[in-house]
Amino acid sequence: MAEEAILGYLQNNEEIKDSGEFAAERNIDHNEIVNVIKSLHGFRYVDAEDIKRETWVLTDEGKTYTATGSPEFQLFNAIPPEGIPKDELQKKLDASVFKIGCAQAAKNKWVEMGKQLVTRKVQNVEDKVKGLLLQIQQGQGIGPDDIKALKARKLIVPQTWKGYSVRKGPNYAPKRKQVVTDLTRENFQSGEWKELEFKEYNYSAKGAPLEGGHLHPLLKVRAQLKQIFLCMGFEEMPTNNFVESSFWNFDALFQPQQHPARDSHDTFFLDAPSTTKRLPEDYVERVKQIHEIGGYESRGYAYDWKREEANKNLLRTHTTAVSSRMLYQLAQKPFAPKKYFSIDRVFRNEAVDRTHLAEFHQIEGLVCDRGLTLCDLIGVLHDFFSHLGMTKLKFKPAYNPYTEPSMEIFSYHEGFKKWVEVGNSGMFRPEMLRPMGLPDDVQVIAWGLSLERPTMILYGIDNIRDLFGPKVDLGLIKKNPICRLGIN
Ligand code: PHE
Asked: Which residues form the Aminoacyl-transfer RNA synthetases class-II family profile domain (predicted)?
């Protein structure tokens, strides 16, 4: 109703000068008019300008007198024509009415406050105060002197009145069109969309609040491991190449070309680009030699080493591919001892089950120095794993093509009450290090483990697919706690 009134009025009139008057004339609540004006203004049906007015409203006391009459009037009426003793008059009236009434009536010269009696001085009086209060209550203006007097008596207080003056806006129409928010299949098919008016985008509206990023448990554990390595003085190796050549992933590591791991059943080979373009040729030659005929007191594997096999690109199957590149680079400069680490993703063509995925993360550490022994490896492993909260370690002889001796690492799990395998380690073979050009007395001790294993233990996850991959519950990523390595 308010909306029709406004739009209808503007059809034939230039302006609504004052929404307050407009509302009063039509007997519509002003608040309702204001809400409609705001909404029409938002859609530019109308242009609205603020108007402010100082008005007066009655205090509670003021309101009371509109019903009872002013105290002076009440007092005057309580006095009989023959007069009345003051104390009797007092009994007839409220304490405050009596007090104020006496003062005001005397001021108005309505009454005589005699020693014996209080008497009327005039026959009739008019309750002007009540009249004025009623006028204000009805929104009518009164003279400045009257305002001053009523204000002094705290019967009225000022109030700012807010309203609008309204004119047609750029989108003015006598009736508001229903704007549509979505283009639907139905109105698209029927052609109705041509007639429809679509709601404009509100670019300044705030979107739904974005949740902050959440760290995946693997990232949290990775950050802690990185910190442990850094505290132990290790440098991080650059691991930003998932694609690697077979050469760096296998051949440089003295892994024979017939090794089952080099089969496509175990490794993902690339279709495009299927081969690597560049390898350090003199080093490639020395690697071929060591595989075919040996050297450095090794007999080699005595087979026909094929360059094409080494050129094949693959998704790296372990981060030791990165270690081999780094050690080769190290060998190109005058020797300096190094401690390196990496934590990154590797890929294996494995059947996926509760504990295996085709991609996972490896943690790898290595120390390269003159005269290192297996004891150094055991010592470093104790140091490293104690930072992870694993203080009881056991080692078991193992086999890797690139390490000798090799050891599997076991740790006693207090919760599971058993020894669990936690990693693999060894001393890189001379067949790997010497062709690179590292000095004869330089040894490299190294170890590797998965990032998933400790993370699953720490977070109590027993199916790797709940930790990583497309089936992970996003709630886990949002709500997972901070689990600290070493204090569980
Ligand atoms: N590369 C080994 C693996 O993938 C781990 C390892 C790293 C073993 C370094 C020995 C030395 O399991």
From this structure: 220-470
Residue 300 structure tokens: 């080699």
Nearest CA to ligand 1 atom 9: 447
Q: Which amino acid is at 169?
A: G
Measured distance CA(399)–CA(382) in Å, rounded: 21
- Report the predicted TM-score, pTM, of the whole model to 2 decimal places: 0.60
426 contacts 378 by C-beta, under 8 angstroms: no
Per-residue three-class SS string for 57-77: EECHHHHHHHHHCCHHHHHHH
- CA dist 51 and 273 (Å) reads 74
In short, whether 249's Cβ falls inside 6 Å of ligand 1 is no
Residue 56's H or E segment, with its range, is: strand 46-58
Q: 358: which DSSP letter? A: S
Strand-strand pairing, 359-370 and 393-400: unpaired
- Is the omega angle on the peptide bond into residue 439 within 30 degrees of 0, that is, cis? no
CA distance 31 to 161: 11
Specify the DSSP class assigned to residue 123.
Answer: S
Closest to 442 (Cα-Cα) out of 333, 285, 280: 333
Beta carbon of 424 within 6 Å of any ligand 1 atom: yes
In this structure, the residue with its CA closest to atom 4 of ligand 1 is 318
Distance 367 CA to ligand 1 centre (A): 14
**With left for phi above 0 and alpha for psi between -120 and 50, is residue 426 left, alpha or beta?**
left
Distance 424 CA to ligand 1 centre (A): 6
Q: Which pLDDT band holds residue 487 (cuts at 50, 70, 90)?
A: low
Nearest CA to ligand 1 atom 5: 448
- The CB density around residue 300, as the number of other CB atoms within 10 Å, is 18
Contacts of 239 (CB under 8 A, 6+ apart): 319, 322, 342, 343, 344
- Residues 359-386: what's their mean pLDDT? 97
**pLDDT digit string (tens) for 352-371?**
888 889 999 999 999 999 99
Q: Contact at 8 Å (CB) between 467 and 218?
A: yes
320 lines ligand 1 (CB under 6 A): yes
Indicate the SS3 state at residue 377. Answer: helix
Backbone angles phi, psi at 169, to 5 degrees: -100, 175
**Residue recorded with tokens 């490639």:** 284
pLDDT tens string 122-153: 888 999 999 999 999 887 888 889 999 999 99
Here the tokens at position 176 are 């508001």
What tokens appear for 337 in the block? Answer: 């001892």
Q: Which residues contact 4 (CB under 8 A, 6 or more apart)?
A: 175
Distance CA 244, CA 321 (A): 8
Atom of ligand 1 at shortest distance to CA of 364?
Answer: 7
